[in-house]
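We modelled the chain as a single entity of 165 amino acids. Its sequence is:
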Amino acid sequence: MLWRRGAGRKTLRLIVVGPTPYRKLKHGRTYHRQRAYLLTTDETTPAKQLLQPYFDRFQIEYNHRDEKDILGVGQAQVRADKSVPRQPELVVAAYALLLLAGLAAYGPGRTTDYVSLPRWRRQARRPSCQDLVNLLRQQVDAAAREQASAAPASDFAQMVMRSAA
């Protein structure tokens, strides 16, 4: 298509995404969101590839929320001048490693390794950041208990005193 005021003589491609049906209640009336339009000058790339970033945006928003709320990006109380710009970078890198480790160890879907979800959230397909953090805490706690039970009592007392100092 051509758009004289918007793109001049460039040919444009219009991609129309149909409205998404949804229900507020399980057996309630079906509603539809409005259709979406994408104008692009790229005429060769498949439409699916052009639309994918728009669908990925939802997951990106989730990632930003998890980084800020659960991991506290930008909330650390650091004093050194070099630490201020490095702290968010470190937390985001740790978040990425946590997600990658979860994918490598348990796969992309929820398994029985995670804590069971409340009834209202049982349809979740993938583990959340909080699920991965809880699982990591359980594993660290189990490893600490195992190490404490294997160590002699005097070593355990010294370890507690060192960690308290």
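As a brief sanity check on the tokenised model: The mean pLDDT is 85. The chain is about 50% helix and 10% strand.
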